[in-house]
Write a structure and sequence with these properties.
The chain has three helices and six strands, in the order ββααββαββ. By secondary structure, the chain is an alpha+beta fold. It has one domain: Heat Shock Protein 90 (2-Layer Sandwich), CATH 3.30.565. A six-stranded antiparallel sheet has the order 1-2-3-4-6-5, with helices on one face. Strand 3 and strand 4 form a beta hairpin.
């Protein structure tokens, strides 16, 4: 399965756009995230600061979906969907894993966690985006991230 980038105008009245990318559960696919976000950024004239926040947060979410959600299973995919209205960009990252309890994550700033290799991705997403939610589904989980870009 190849990565797919698709752009659709979904609602002429409310001027909403949907961008979608599908990737395999392989960490090499993460390199396509920047191109996907740059396409959106150019069309919407998003400034470099917001672009950086999007890139770090989305990369972390996709990496978590591949490694933790899908357990790097090449038969599973990750779907990245961006819904854009006039002021807010919402990114959904969906995996096919079992999900997790986001409230049980330890704070990576605590002394006992400083040297751990994992545990900073969700912290970064929450720090960089305006709003972050985690949802468990019957088949998979979704990270929803929102940022005001105008």
């Amino acid at each position: 399965m190849k990565s797919i980038v698709d752009r659709k105008k979904s609602d002429k009245t409310h001027r909403k756009y949907v961008y979608e990318m599908i990737c395999r559960s392989n960490q090499k696919e993460i390199s396509h995230i920047e191109k996907f976000l740059r396409q959106i950024s150019m069309e919407l004239h998003i400034d470099d600061g917001i672009m950086y926040r999007l890139l770090v947060s989305c990369t972390e979410a996709v990496n978590n979906a591949i490694v933790h959600g899908n357990k790097s299973d090449p038969d599973k995919k990750v779907i990245i969907r961006c819904i854009v209205d006039e002021k807010i960009l919402t990114i959904y990252v969906k995996d096919e894993g079992k999900g997790f309890d986001s409230k049980s994550l330890q704070d990576p700033r605590e002394k006992k966690n400083l040297m751990k290799e994992n545990g900073r991705g969700v912290f970064l997403m929450r720090s960089l985006m305006d709003k972050v939610k985690f949802k468990r589904l019957k088949s998979g989980s979704i990270v929803e991230m929102k940022v005001k870009y105008r």
